Amino acid sequence: MIPVAEFKQFTEQQPAFKVLKPWWDVLAEYLTVAMLMIGVFGCTLQVTQDKIICLPNHEPQENLSEAPCQQLLPRRSPEQMGALQEVKGLKNNLDLQQYSFINQLCYETALHWYAKYFPYLVVIHTLIFMVCTSFWFKFPGTSSKIEHFISILGKCFDSPWTTRALSEVSGENQKGPAAAGRASATIVATAGAAPGKAGEGEKEKVLAEPEKVVTEPPVVTLLDKKEGEQAKALFEKVKKFRVHVEEGDILYTMYIRQTVLKVCKFLAILVYNLVYVEKISFLVACRVETSEVTGYASFCCNHTKAHLFSKLAFCYISFVCIYGLTCIYTLYWLFHRPLKEYSFRSVREETGMGDIPDVKNDFAFMLHLIDQYDSLYSKRFAVFLSEVSESRLKQLNLNHEWTPEKLRQKLQRNAAGRLELALCMLPGLPDTIFELSEVESLRLEAICDITFPPGLSQLVHLQELSLLHSPTRLPFSLQVFLRDHLKVMRVKCEELREVPLWVFGLRGLEELHLEGLFPQELARAATLESLRELKQLKVLSLRSNAGKVPASVTDVAGHLQRLSLHNDGARLVALNSLKKLAALRELELVACGLERIPHAVFSLGALQELDLKDNHLRSIEEILSFQHCRKLVTLRLWHNQIAYVPEHVRKLRSLEQLYLSYNKLETLPSQLGLCSGLRLLDVSHNGLHSLPPEVGLLQNLQHLALSYNALEALPDELFFCRKLRTLLLGDNQLSQLSPHVGALRALSRLELKGNRLEALPEELGNCGGLKKAGLLVEDTLYQGLPAEVRDKMEEE
Question: Does the keyword ATP-binding apply (predicted)?
Fold first, then answer.
């Protein structure tokens, strides 16, 4: 006998593939096994037993063609039969070899081919059915997708996060350990049950299926770090797999093709079997020209297995009919509904996760097949398609990673003296942040899709919030909290229209710093949201590419004290609206492409500081108009292309700080000495060759920066500035330092590196405030000082 197990290789599949086999495929598989057994049984009989047995026919030759085999048997009357009772049979005078020869010859020539090859045909057709059924599991283009899907499906089904997500989102996670244990233990058993019946059947299910209480965790608790990372990796796999599978429909097409092929095969088998099944006959007439060998030309043969084969044939045809009906039903299932689309509507309604997306193409087709096996698989798989579920998992992992103790280690004082917590490039916002009630400043950078939870209200000392490339949603209930607490708000984004609207409703805000670009088509208009609600705003900083000062700035004209516009080189044209800022004290127009000092600035009577850094100023003749700004004390004209300072700079007698570094100055006017209020003068990084002696008139000067120029000597009058504390002379061409430097008793910082000095005057010892740390000079020059001078400088 040929064991059926030998044919296992034709249908061998991974056990996990059973989830993609609907009931009709399972039924068809059993039918093919039954048909295969019929074929194997018939083949075994063919091989092990005699096929046909023949006897010579004694009738005359002329009657052979007119009578069938059963009619050629000798007929005798009852009287003849009684008279011949002693006769045992007709003598044929044939030996065993002749009988064997006749049997084989008649089997090949007289027996119908269907009767001869019936069992082999059954085996062949059954193997074809098996191949058609499992072909899509073996074909390279489909098997890889199926294996990947089954692998992900199994991990999603068994993931602890699936149970937790379904329990939390759908409200099945009850409070208390006992209720949580029941929910987790029966989540598989009760999936899909009506909420009203869940409580009634819970006890009965636990009693009837105690093994589920053992396999499921007794309490839905926090996932450990490893489980959280595994669930996070599953979300990424599902995303990539969905994108890959939804691109085509090869699985759907392959399944249809193999089903159509099985239907065609079924029809062909059914037709020819019904036609030829009657050819299986017990008696077969055989006429062969063997009279010279055997003495007979006509034989009557018995097909020994005809009776059994006819029964097997009818049984086989019955199985084929049932198999064909399943194939026809499969075609009906494939075409009567859109299997290339799959809706999770019922899952969304049952679980409450309304963001689960519908899928299409091969992804949808496999989920339809899964539903035929067990719809619970698609429900648990849907958890990993939900962004809500993914965000909850990220939040859980964040809370594991960023404990309150770890966050407290990152607390630092910022430039404003506030206790600041800075977080950068996190996948979300840890809930543990809101346990640090002492935080005064929160800085969030490159954190995507932040939604502040109600726990934000626990930060009772929060005064400053920075959102740098961190899109944020704020529930309405928390806007009141931030409006009452926030004093400083910083927002940085790609485009200013991405700034959250709730920012412009923070009435208690004192400082607002915005950074982002206007779209090219809107840059000239530079439209910004209304600032009318910001009743207490004192500082406004805007870094963008605006073509003019935003009109909404005038909404806070009555109380705005500091305005900073940083344009990154884009030309700022319309500045007339600045005239309305009557209370403005500080104005920064940085990198605004200005070629002249804006006339609107001269109307700002309260202005105290003006910064025009990094523009294209060549001439500052308008500096005379600054005499109208009687409160102006700081003027920064650095990083421009100014070639000279006009003589009427002398009119700025109230000026205390003047920055002219990084320009193209070669000389300074002597009238600069008449700016008697000047305390700081920075003319470093220019091309100065000398200083006017009138610089000695600056009796209030405390800081003088002359580094990176071409000075060869210093006027002795410079050392009349007895209040000078900082003198920066590095990287010039000085060959000596005047002994009069000893008159600068308040000097505490002196930079001399990068000059041509050969020695330092010993009068440096008279500078009582100058220590070694404040003297920046080459070591050789320092060692050249007298020992007592060095000792004095090195004293604490």
Answer: no
